[in-house]
Structures are given as structure tokens and as C-alpha cells.
Predict the structure.
Amino acid sequence: MDFEANEIKEKGRLQPGKILMVDTEKGEIYYDGELKKQLAEAKPYKTWLANNRVELDELKSGRKVPHTVDNYDKLLRTFGYSREDIEKIIVPMCTGGAEPVGSMGNDTPLAVLSDRPQLLYNYFRQQFAQVTNPPIDPIREELVMSLEEYIGAVGNNILVPNESHCKMVRLNHPILTNTQLDLLCNIRYKGFNAVKLPMLFEAAKGREGLKSALDELCKKAEQSVTDGVNYIILSDKNVDEKLAPIPSLLAVSAVHHHLISVQKRVQTALVVETGEMREVMHAALLLGYGASAINPYMVFAILKELEDKHEIQLNYETARKNYVKSICKGLFKVMSKMGISTIRSYRGAKLFEAVGLDAELARTYFGGTTSNVGGIRLDEIARDSIAMHHQAFDQPVDGMLEHKGIYSFRKDGEKHAWNPETISTLQLATRLGSYKKFKEYSRMVDEKESPIFLRDFLTFRKQKSIPIEQVEPAEEIMKRFVTGAMSFGSISKEAHETMAMAMNKIHGRSNTGEGGEDPARFTPREDGLSLRSSIKQVASGRFGVTTEYLVNADEIQIKVAQGAKPGEGGQLPGYKVNDIIAKTRHSIPGISLISPPPHHDIYSIEDLAQLIFDLKNVNPKAEISVKLVSESGVGTIAAGVAKAKADRIVISGAEGGTGASPVSSIRYAGLPPELGLSETQQTLVMNSLRGQVRLQTDGQLKTGRDIILMALLGAEEFGFATSALIVLGCVMMRKCHMNTCPVGVATQDEELRKRFHGRHEYLVNFFTFLAEEVREHLAEMGYSKLDDIIGRTDLIVDKRTHGTQMTQIEQMATDQNLKNLHKSPKSVSSACHKYDLLDFSHLLHLPEQAAYTPIHHTTNQVHQIENVKDTDIILHAKGAIEFQQEVSLDYAIANTDRSVGAMLSGEIAKRYGNTGLPDHTLNIKFKGSAGQSFGAFLAHGVHFRLEGEANDYLGKGLSGGRISLMPPVRSTFVAEDNTIAGNTLLYGATSGEVYINGRVGERFCVRNSGAIAVVEGVGDHCCEYMTGGRVVVLGRTGRNFAAGMSGGVAYVWNKAGDFDYYCNMEMVELSLIEDSATRKELHELIRKHYHYTGSHLAGKMLDNWDKQVDEFIQIVPIEYKKVLQEEQMKKLQQKIAEMQRDY
């Protein structure tokens, strides 16, 4: 039902965390402030807290607590420390105060495939939010994040508040120093009491010893709660010759779940004193499975040792502070990936899944954590723990720890799929164009002696073979190949262009990666080669996403997550941003660019559907793809994405490469592509959605065999990134994040880039060889087309059971081991591998729906863009679009009209590129309530004037157009006090102007890189990540203004004088409007606002300008100011030089 404009009393919006109550009987509205005041004053909460709560930081004791441990060398080995742990993880954390950064993905075996003893932590993977419930940016939005932890008993009935609930110890964060733990153990007053229980078992008793120790521990914990203990400390400190530590994660989780099962969990808190925990993932796991606080005493001992040996140039106190700080930052990041902002909602939430854990074990001790391929039981956990204990106590301990070679290749270390042999053979084969040499490479990869990836256990049925001539040609197969989304910025211009050339030559597709593309690359060169990337990526940073960029794409890819660091944003440091990158990214050279973790216009599947609709309108010919990362649950998300009308879904494997990512994310987030792909394929088939999308996968794909196996699991298309870089010369030095790539592939350094010797012919050879290999396999299998085998998991066989590749002796050994496993645990010989326990039945399941519904792509998505308002506008604006004549039009608009202006702008950009039409060519007036994305990607020369109101995403990706918005003429409410448009307006705008006569919602001008906007009030997070343009706010702002803002300028009318409370001061400085040029600029912006919207407020300001201008504050990013000053200095020096020359 529509209201008359003069009937509306006020227009507002319900803000995050606010309450609104309507009493329909009394006809009254209650606002947030009064409701919360009533609740807060109901009981004397303040007095209760003052009398009962203990602040740990304020307690002192006379005892001296040592930082060292006895038996230091033995304990290091018991807990499996390696030189790498100390040099590559602990040292960077304690010197830099942040997690170490790595690059180039993870090509070492999964924990369950490795023959070395593993920490239990290594079997787990973090979960992360994709599309729905988006991740948070823990750095720029720190105000919502908290690691504060309260430990103590909650009492029985939390619903009836009383004073005893306040008996708590408050910790600022969950990492305890040795001194703090000592205090906790000894708080005697105010009725606190604690108990310490050992996490140890008798090494000689093996699995039975471990099981009985766990049972005993759970019993003791239950008894302690009955005895009224406020918190239990689980400790593995007293390891000796006989006693080995129970893995801390197993102990914590077992106790946590046992207490839940006997309904005693809330009456106590668990504190862990462990030598095992050393990195962020370990802390996250312990907290996620129920611990409230952790004391990593071995790390503190290592820090003390480093200080004593002068291996770090810091004293112990500083090193420890830095280490704790980096763990806290890391915890924020891990929580924020799931969209969780407080440690208290994360604790015990088990937001993990396991790879290589027995499902029964996961049910018994880990509360049913997902584990899809089975794996190790208590036997193997005990075996690994005892092996490490044995190394420490039964073998001579020499000074040097072993170097496990996990983060970079070592001859004696863990196996790497990309090693000197595979790299050099592949480079030689593709440079010589020798297929024979390529077969040597693929034999090395396919027949490696020990498995690294899950697919190494799989092979395919070879039925009646057919002659290779009957198989589809290599040219057809190569159309299915794409190269990875590596931005020009993470890799050099040369590498980026070489890839595009090669892919265009074989009719595959290369990807821009995030960050725009130089328009010069859109037109083919004289020699016929094209440098245009067919896939244009739209990432959360929206760098360089202009209308022109979008219309020059065959496929537009929405990057929801990245394989190597799902749920995280990225950052291109200022020193990498040179003139060319700054130009394509619409920013300023030398200023760092931040990509937020979430897309701020995708908080749900509906929002994703809207973005797909926007992009499809701008470029109806392009296919829209969505890139997800493999995790359990990705199938459900993919089904939503298919319903949201994506044409293609990419499932990225977690082992893929990256230009820079925290090391813990590379190792511990996301699953191998096999698992995510098969889940997606099965879910789509079961919901009859598979036929309308194409599936693509990537993640360490190397040979024709990999391609065939991925096709059998459901993929139509295949992505190559690391392998493509290796063909172009990459030698896996893993220095991408340091800008020091010795072969000029992943660097912006002018000198190093001269060392790049890659050529597009090498890549053409590589992809041709891959296609030929695929043809050979297809012929062996008896199929003529790749399409015939897609999704046919019934053709996959498990090498372990069907010894197709095994000799008879190996086969007998395996059978014997499997028999042994079913007998008594003691007879398990050392020859038994952990991976014999894996179970691929879930992975290879073929849903029954496959009998009557498509299992590969058969039909195209129906996008329903034929009847949008733009089709009519384009028809009537023909004179303007084709002949640049002035045209004025009038339309009524309703909120079902979405993305108005997008298709029109696409038509303009196809003809005139980013220049658009001359100013004032096309003027369109709308009346009514506009739907989402009004004026999205609006091109230059178009002016939309809306009288009414607008929904979310107005002016998204604005590319030069002008939008003015004002309330209906007959409305009676005061414009500047009422909300007139929704959230996330001008997200990723690159140029253009917007004037809004009224207040707007959250995240106004996020990632604006060049548009001008004037508005009369904003919600939280205004100007977040802004890198250019001007924003004027004539009214109140929300909190966290200018977070992550690195460029552009904002002006805020600070009438109340409290703006500094609302501003995030991390990257900006505030000043009054002092110099005449700035005053002039601001006056001109407000004058234009008055001119286009007739704003009453702007009129009043202009009338009384000299007084009003003093109430404004200017917000300028520090980095931006510095760069501008440097430029001014350069100009001045040039002038001086010119004057000197003239004399």
C-alpha cells in the first residue's frame, strides 16, 4: 500500500544492535535508549560486579615464577618442535608482533598422508563464512572485536540474575603468562578455588594407556565440579621417561564434551597449561573445543632461550608481549573469518572440520566434528605421541633440532609436490616443446612413491579402448582451461600479459585478478595477438571495476573467497603500487590498497543474486561466475549460488598458490579440491540444479591424470595458476610477498622484472601437452568426449583395493595390514600406513538422482533481464546514445525496478569506453521508490534525478554519471533528519557525482576511488577503505568513520563538536578548514548540492557561509597527505629548475 507523501511523520532505519518496540495497544513507539536504560537499572549490577569480579591484571604476588623449564631439550622433542617452528613461526611472531606471512600455497602431504609423527592439531581445518554471514575485517573494524574472557562458575540458572553470577576472573585475552597462571592457581580469597589435573599417559601402555588416562581425566574433572571447583587447569607439565603427554586438543575436547554430557559444563572453566601450543591455529583449536585460557609454557621457555643466546635482539618481556600480541591478532582473524566478533561466542563453538580423523573418534571426543574421509583412531594418536616421546627420552639428544621442511623444500624434509625435479623437468619440456620430456614430468607427478594429495589414491577404469583419432581434438579440450586469478600487482606486468596472450591463442581464458585492466589491452595488437583477459574479476576491493572494464569481458567472476586464505582480505603494500598499477586501480602511486574480507554488498544469497543481476545487466553477453573455496558445507552454498543465477561455479582447492597470506591460513583453512568438488557435484545433482551451471575447479592441478580425475568428480573446467607461473620461469623461492622474486615473475621491481624470460609459446606448449594427455586417457577409457565422463564417479577406482597399479607383493602387504587392523591393535605393524584407514565412500558417492537428472552442464541460466526498465530507456534514448543529442525523459519507478541504469551504461561504455557521453546529454527524472542498485555503474553524461527514496546500493560502481535524490515535493518531514536511502551506497565508485537530500544508512562510499558525494547524515563505517574522491557529510555520522581510508578527502559538519569520538583515527588526521583553496572547494560542493537537490539545509549554510565553514572538519589520510606533499615539492623543484635554466 502506498502512503501519500504528506502522511509520513518520519522515515528511519533500524540500526545494527538497536531495539525498536511498538506498542500497538497504546499506539506508542519506544526507542533504543529508553528501553536499554530500563533494563540496565533493573538490578544493582554495578555494585554486584564491584564486590565479586576479580581483575587478573591487577593481582600481584610475591612469588618469583621461572620462565624456563627443566629438561628443555627433551621437552622440545616430546612436543615435536622443529627448527622451522622456531625460526619461521616463533621468531617472526616475537620480533614483529604479527603472524608470519608466506606465499605460493601448500604442496606438502596432508597430515594423514605423511609418514612422520604429527601433532593432532594438523588434522584440523578452520571453517570460514562464504556468501552468508560474511567475515568481519578485524583490523579496520576492531571496535566490534573482543578477546575478553571471564572464567569461573556461571551457577545454575542464568535466567534469574543474582549476585553469585558475578564471581568471575576477568582476563583481557585468553593467553596467560606463567605468572598469571600461577596467580590463577592460587587465588584463595572471595571463595575461588582451582584444581590441576594431569594430561599425561603411560607411554609403555600404548593405546590402552591413552584411553584409560582420558577416562580417568574426565572422571576427575566431573568430580572436581561436584566439589565446587571454579576452574580446572589441565596440565602436561610433568612429562618424564614414563609419562608421555596426551595431545592437549584431545584432552580439552574430551573433558569439555564429557562435562556437557553430565550437565556440569557451565559450572566450571577449563584452563590449559600446555607445551604443545605454539601458533595461532593451535590456540584457536583449544579455545574452539572448550578452553577458556591457555598458558603455552614451552614458547615462553623458547623465548627465554632465544634471549639468552642473543638470537633475538629483544629482551624477554618485549618478546613475550609481541608473541602474545600476534596470537591475539591471529585469533581475531580466525574468529572474524566466521563472522564472529567475540571470543565468548567462539569458545566451544567447534568451528572446524577434520581431514584424516576417524568418524567414530570425532563423535566420541570431538562432539561430532565433520570428518568426511575417515582416518586415524586413538591407536595412531597414541603411536605418534609415543614416537615423539621416544625420540626425546630414548635417543641421544644432540643440540640441533631437526628441520622438517614444511614451509620450504629441504632434501631431508617433508615431501613437496613442487620440488627441484618436477620444476626443472616441466620447464625443460615446455621450453623445448618436447612431449616426451613432458611425459617424464607427468610420470614423476602421477607415480610418486608416497601420496601427497587425496587423488593420489584414485585411478580410473580402463575399459574397451578406442583409437585416439576418435577422441575430440586438443583444441576443444583446451577451451576448458583457465589460468588463475593473479592480479597485476601480485605478479609482474610481463607475466600477466604473457598469460593473456597464451590463453587467447588457445581459446582458453585468462583472468585479470582483482585490480582492473589497462584499456590499451582491450584491442588486439598488430601481430594479431591479444592481451585482453577474458575473465574480469570483481573482488571485494572493486579496484578498477568500471563499466568499460565490465563490457570488455566474456566472463565476469565474483571472487567470494581465495583458496589460500579464504575469509580474509588482502593488501597491496604502497611500495608495490607504481604508476601503471595506480592507473588501472584508480588510486594514487605509493598508497597501499586494502581489499576487505567481505564484499560489502554480499551479506546473503539474495545480495549475491542482486550483484549477479547488476553485472548481467551491464554486460548481458558475459557469463557470471562465482568463486568459492572448498570446505564442508560448500555444496549448500553452491546450491544457493546456482539459484542466484550464476552461470558458473568455481570450487577452489585450499592448497592453491597465493602472492601473500598468513602462514597459518595457507596450512589450516579450507579443504583439498577433491572434497569440495565432490560435495558440490552431489548437492547440485540431488537438487536438480547441476544442468544449469558449469563447474570449475583448481588447486595444485598438474597433469592430464589430475584433469581426468577432477572431471570424473564433476568438473567441466580446470584452473592452473602455480603450474602456469612455473612454466614461465617461477622456481618456487616463495618470496612473492617480499617483492624480491629472482626471476621477475611475482615482483614490481623494475630491475628484477628484466629477468623475466617467459614466453607465451611455453604456455601454449604446456596446455597442448595437457590436452594431448587427456586425449590419451580418454582413448584408454573408451570415451570420445570429455563431456561423457563428467560426474561419473562410478568410473573411479581406489588403488588400495583394486591393485591396478600395484605389484602383487605390495597388494599382499596391503591386504595383510588391513586384516591386522581388524584384529588386535597391538599387532599393527609399523608397515601399516595411516592412510590405509581412509574411506572414500562419501567422496565417490553417485546420488541416485543421477539416473534421471543431468550430471553436467546442459542448459543456460535464465536471467530475466529482457523486461527491465532499461530496455525502454535505451529505446527512447537512442538519439543520445548514438548521436550524442540531448534527451530528457520521465519515468515512474517502483522498488521492483532494480539495477536501473546499468544496462543503459553498458550500451554507452561499449561505444565510448570510460569517457561516456558529453556532460548533460541524457537527463532522466524518476518519481517513486527505487529498487536496489539504482544508477549502478552509471556512465558519464547521464543524470538521474530521483524524487522519492532509494534502496541499498545506489550508485554502486558509479562510472562518471550523476545522481541526485530528494524527498517528494509534498512531503512535510524535515529532509536532513530522515533516512532517504539504504546501505552501502557508492560501493566501489570510480568517478561521478551524487547529491542526496537526506540521511543514508551504513557503509556510505565504501571503497570509493574517485566519486564526489554530498549527503546529510550517514551510518557507521562511512568512507571505509576510500582511496580517492570527495565526501561531504552535512550532519551526524555513525561510528568508525574513515576506517582504512588511504586516499581522498572527507568534510564533516561537526555541529555537536563530538566528531572525533566517531572517527577511526588509525590512518587519518583531522583539521579545520583553514586555507582558501579548501574553503573554496567545500563551498563549491555544497553549492552544487543546493543546485541539484534544492536542499533547505545547504541553502541555509550558503547564506551564512563565513560562520558555518568554521564548524566543518576536514579528514585527510596521512599517507595521502604525504604523497600529495611530495608531489607539490617535485613541482616546486621543477619550477625552480626551469627558472634557473632561463637565467
Q: What stands out?
A: The longest helix spans residues 1118-1142. The longest strand covers residues 922-930. DSSP finds 36 helices and 37 strands in the chain. Confidence is low (pLDDT under 50) at residues 804-815, 819-831.
